[in-house]
Automatic annotation (TrEMBL):
Keywords: Membrane, Signal, Transmembrane, Transmembrane helix. It comes from the Eukaryota. The chain crosses the membrane at residues 240-259. Residues 1-26 form the signal peptide. This is Uncharacterized protein.
Amino acid sequence: MFRQLIINSQALFVLAAVLCPRQVGAVCLLCEDGVDGLKYPFAVIKSDGTSCTKLAVSVAVDYEEGSSQCTKQIQAWREICCGDKQPIDVDITDVFDEYPDIDSIQQVGPYEKCNVCRDGDYPSTTSMVLTMLYIGSGSCAQYWKVGQQGLIPDHLCDPLQYFAYEPCGCGEFSTNGNYHWSEDSEDESSNDDKTPWWSNADSLFGDDQVGNTEGNTDGDWWSGADSFPSSSASYASRTWLYASAHIVCLFIISTGFFAS
């Protein structure tokens, strides 16, 4: 049921080309054994956040085997990404300044649109790899696109937004100035900052609101618990919150799937 959620026909071809080099001999392989040869696939090797996995796919898509460009990429990166020595992670310093044309993305799935960043931002850390149960692994940018296409199940959207918030560079972790395409995605309430509720305890867990969820119809499954910390919570309490939410998230995803 979920096998079509992330990959379309073009992505499937790219995956086949990289995984099956013997059948598709025209693609440029960064490692001799294709992606299986990547010893440290998630190592960041460029200042724009490019990982070895992303580079391997780009090389396979963009260059033909035996071309001068292919040879150049192999000479520059094969030893780093395919060798036994662990690469030194490069600091991400390049600020993302290009955004996809949101109007060109068609909704092809059966679900509502799901923004990776809860407040409508485009993820500023586009190369970070996320792995989600029943969906698979993909970069923040890829998750954003399939979310716009309606390919992320509705019950997985909230957990995705919660756990992608910092890794994908949303809210106060953004390096692109909290980019929005339109004013519609901005919060129209009196609290006009763009950070979600879990990064601003005062807006939901203040002393006069703890345990009182009346009128809070827009809360998510993890909100409204009177045992959650207030704005004066310690670091340990906030760590407990994240760990507990993670456990509950996995439980809900698993039971929801098998119940269906």
